Amino acid sequence: MTMSRRALLGAAGLALASPALAQTAWPSRSIRLIVPFAAGGAADSAARVITPRMGERLGQGFVVENRTGASGSLGGGEVARSNDGHTFLWDASSHIVNPSLLRGLPFDYATAFTPISLVVSFPSAVAVKNDFPARNLAEFVAAAKARPGTLTIGTQGNATAGHLGLVAFARRAGIEVVHVPYRGGSAAAQDLASGAIDAVFTTLVSAGPVVDAGRARFLAVGTLERVESRPDVPTIHESGYQGFDSNEWAGFFGPAATPPAVVRQLSAALTEAVADSTIRQRLVQIGCVPQATSPEAFATFVREGREAMATLVREANIRAE
């Protein structure tokens, strides 16, 4: 058999091009995902549920690494500086709060990252100790107004999503309470269960165990719609504070120079993973609300959230610890 000169040249060109194409194919090795929070927490757990399925779609596995410190900015900075094309960030609400609280950051949150997808939210909740007389949010607000500046409410820490949510709710409700910051929502929930504080404004994940043990009661959740895992708990929105929506969340970011093609691949892999019924069930079980979004929608969400948090931090005079 013989080949024409054109066919021979075409075959040679393809042979020469193949190595170059192989070199530019993404991902070409394991994907490193930086989680700037402690292992075993809600955000970390959600990442470890989702990434194995993403790896199946992308043909390369994920290596999840916890890089804690400085309200998540240490891990964020590591991703912002990366240029290997395979290092990404799994960040939470601190991503939109840190720019207003932390000084001297070596990077700008607004320009150092490429938003890829919002992945899950962690509904906030108001829970009270068992002997607190309020049976619903209206009665809780009435109790707070009757005793201004005396009710103690715990959160997962100063300047956290729980603290900011509490400030936002107190401003909407016109109440004055005593904020008690803890090193994590679980610690706040334990003090609630013992009766050391009156209430908590933290995540369902953190308060759920003490409520399930009959040592505290939920009054409301901070989502606009009722949560699948707690359908009997009304929302703050439906309890008279229309539009109130304050929750922790986790999303996927790349460095600023992440190529659009890579963004599309990661977004598609995330969407597929979150749509998987088994993965959704596991996320719901740990207290998450799965909600993968497009990169464009996530970029808008982050920008608007950063602006809203800047206003809240300034007006409420919130300071980092």
Task: Give a written overview of the molecule.
The protein is an alpha/beta fold and 321 residues long. It folds into two domains: 30-121 and 247-316, D-Maltodextrin-Binding Protein, domain 2; 123-221, D-Maltodextrin-Binding Protein, domain 2. It has eleven helices and ten strands. Strands 1, 2, 3, 4, 5, 6, 7, 8, 9 and 10 form a ten-stranded mixed sheet that branches. Helix 4 crosses helix 11. It is globular and about 65 Å long. The model is unreliable at 1-23 (pLDDT under 50).
What features would you highlight for this structure?
D-Maltodextrin-Binding Protein, domain 2, 10-stranded mixed β-sheet, globular, 321 residues, alpha/beta
In CATH's first tier, which class of the largest domain applies?
Answer: Alpha Beta
What is the SS-derived class? alpha/beta
Question: What does the main sheet amount to?
Answer: 10 strands, mixed
Strand proportion, as a percent range, falls in 15-25%
Q: What is Rg?
A: 23 Å
CATH topology of the largest domain: D-Maltodextrin-Binding Protein, domain 2
Number of strands: 10
Query: How many individual helices?
Result: 11
**What is the count of structural domains?**
2
Tell me, what's the shape? globular
Query: In whole angstroms, how far apart are the ends?
Result: 78 Å
Q: Which assembly state applies to the chains in this document?
A: single chain
Which segments are poorly predicted (pLDDT under 50) over 5 or more consecutive residues?
1-23
Mean pLDDT: 90
**SSE order, one letter for each helix or strand:** HEHEHEHEHEHEHEHEEHHEH
CATH architecture of the largest domain: 3-Layer(aba) Sandwich
- The fourth-level CATH homologous superfamily of the largest domain is Bordetella uptake gene, domain 1
